[in-house]
Each structure stands twice: as C-alpha cells, then as structure tokens.
Design the sequence.
C-alpha cells in the first residue's frame, strides 16, 4: 500500500499536542465559576419557591377575599338602597292612590248632594205650576226666585287634575338611572338595528354592514324611492317598534353635527320643509349636537341640554308602552334627557349626520 500522507506532511503533524498546564488551570477555573453560578441560581430559585411563592399565594388569597367581600358588601348596599327606594316609592303610590280615591269620594258626595238639591227644586217648581193659579204664582215669585238662584250656584262638573292619579309620584332619579343602566349596559338590552338603505339621503353614505352613516358634501346618486329623504341628511332604521322596551347605542365621537332618536314612519321624506326636518314636527323626537351645543327637539320645541363634556356614545332607550324616550351616556351613566310621550304609531330609530360619521354600536 502506498503512503497516504503527502511527502512533506508527517503523521506526527496530526497528533494532538498535550495541553499546556496553564490551559488546564484556566479550564478548571471556568468550570468552577460555572458551578458557582449554578449554585447561586439554584439558591435564588430555592428562595423564590420557599419564600416568594408562598407570599404570593397568601397575597392572592387575601386579595381574592377582599374582592369577594367588596362585591358582596357593595351589592348588599345597592340592594338595601333599592329596597329602601322601593318602599319609599310604593308608599308614595299608596298615598297618591288614597288621595285620588278621597278626591273622587268627595266629588261623589258633593255632586250627589247637588243632584238632590236640583231634584228637590224641580219637584217644588212642578208643584208650584200644578197647584197655583196665576195670582198664586205671582205671590210666590220671590220664593221661586230665591230657590232658583240657589240652584244656579250649582255649577257643572269640570275636569280636575285632583281626580287623576299623578304618575310623577314615582319619579326617582335613582330608579331612572338604574333602569337605564340595566337596559343599555346589559347584553340582553341591546337591539340589532340596521339602517334602511332605501331611506338614506343623497348626502349620506352607508357602510356595508349598514351600521355607519358618513356625511357627503357632494350629493350621491341613489335609485329613486318614495321612502328616501331627498334633502335633509336623514335615515331610518329598517325595523319599527310597536310595543315593549328597546335600547341601542350610537357612537358619535367623530361627529360635531348629528341627530338621533325616534320618529314615526309617517315622517315626511321629501322637501326641505319642517315636515321632513327631525325635531321640527310632531313625528320625531331627537337629541342633537351642533358644535358644542346639545339640544332635545320635538315639534319645533327645543330644550338645551347642558353637558360638561361631549359624550363618546349615546344610548337611546324607548319604553313604548310606558310612553318614554330617554337619552343616556353609557360611559358616565348619566341621563342626558328624558321625555314622556304617548306614542300612537310604530316608531323607528332615526339618525342624521352633517359632519364626519356616526355608527350604530352592537
């Protein structure tokens, strides 16, 4: 067999040289240093497991106990407040009911007595005509006059608020806010509401999910439709409500000019007159913003709403049967405005925007 290695390279060249003593010492020192680091690391972990974790566990138990107690105590407080408010309001209802009943009884007694007086007078007059001749009637004229004059003092019954139960006796800011919060902030109180694209003004653009309305300075071209608003930047929801309690929220943080609320389906759609302008007719109830001014409007009656800050969202709550529409700030739990109304037609959520965009919040 021939020589595997080239002539100028010997086999000794490939043999590993023995390490120098100083190199051995350096390697040993590195291993010792590594062992010390591992020992320190183990000590740190051992201390963490032995001291820190038990402390964290105890801290967690204490924090959970405090949180649990806080929830219980606060709910007990709220429950007590609600029970006290319930008792107070029920007492007011009972008092108002008793007052109304007493007024009715008083009126009944008064008019029963008046009927008896009128019947007695009528019997007297019939007797005079039947039993007296002309001379006798002349002699009895003064007596007849006095009796009939007394009867003329009996006036006809007039409608009186004293005979009606006063619903204001149950007005309670606390109950109002709790009720609005429960309806607007709980998932069961939210409504799936979409804008009816057939109603949107040419000044509006509707998002694909039919939740966002964006103002367009340049009028868009939409198919002609009798339901479409052709002047004011309005739009109606697709679904109407004819009974029950309904609530929805609208994100308004991007806009400085908008209106939102409810309207009848009979709201005028065409033209620039007040009949189609939200809040300027008897068919619409809206909360509006223009720059920094906030207003509730209905039938050309405008009430200024004083707000410390501009709301990011506005909740709308409608109690169709109870006859109330309420506007609410879900973030601060503040009722912005409430209005009582007897609704005579199904009502639609209504929106309008003249700056940027507003969106229905699911």
Sequence:
């Amino acid at each position: 067999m021939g020589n595997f290695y080239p002539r100028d390279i010997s086999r000794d060249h490939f043999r590993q040289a023995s390490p120098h003593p100083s190199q051995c010492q350096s390697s040993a020192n590195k291993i010792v240093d590594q062992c010390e680091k591992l020992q320190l690391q183990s000590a740190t972990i051992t201390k963490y497991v032995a001291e820190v974790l038990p402390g964290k566990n105890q801290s967690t138990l204490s924090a959970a106990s405090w949180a649990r107690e806080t929830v219980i105590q606060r709910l007990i407080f709220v429950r007590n407040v609600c029970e006290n408010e319930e008792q107070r309001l029920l007492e007011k209802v009972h008092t108002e009911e008793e007052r109304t009943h007493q007024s009715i009884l008083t009126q009944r007694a008064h008019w029963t007595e008046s009927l008896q007086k009128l019947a007695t007078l009528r019997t007297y007059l019939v007797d005079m005509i039947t039993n007296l001749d002309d001379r006798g009637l002349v002699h009895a004229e003064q007596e007849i006059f006095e009796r009939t004059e007394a009867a003329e003092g009996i006036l006809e019954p007039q409608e009186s608020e004293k005979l009606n139960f006063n619903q204001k006796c149950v007005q309670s800011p606390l109950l109002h806010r709790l009720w609005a919060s429960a309806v607007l902030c709980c998932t069961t109180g939210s409504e799936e509401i979409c804008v009816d694209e057939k109603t949107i003004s040419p000044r509006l653009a509707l998002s694909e999910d039919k939740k966002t309305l964006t103002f367009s300075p340049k009028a868009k071209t939409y198919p002609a439709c009798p339901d479409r608003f052709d002047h004011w930047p309005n739009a109606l929801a697709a679904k109407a409500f004819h009974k029950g309690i309904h609530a929805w929220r609208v994100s308004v943080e991007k806009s400085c000019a908008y209106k939102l609320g409810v309207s009848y389906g009979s709201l005028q759609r065409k033209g620039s007159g007040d009949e189609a302008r939200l809040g300027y007719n008897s068919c619409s109830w809206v909360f509006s913003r223009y720059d920094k001014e906030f207003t509730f409007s209905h039938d050309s009656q405008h009430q200024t709403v004083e707000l410390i800050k501009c709301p990011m969202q506005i909740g709308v709550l409608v109690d169709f049967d109870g006859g109330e529409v309420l506007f609410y700030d879900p973030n601060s739990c503040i009722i912005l405005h409430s209005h009582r109304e007897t609704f005579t037609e199904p009502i639609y959520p209504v929106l309008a925007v003249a700056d940027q965009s507003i969106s229905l919040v699911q």
About this structure: The radius of gyration is 42 Å. The longest strand covers residues 257-264. The helical segments are 21-131, 134-139, 141-152, 173-185.
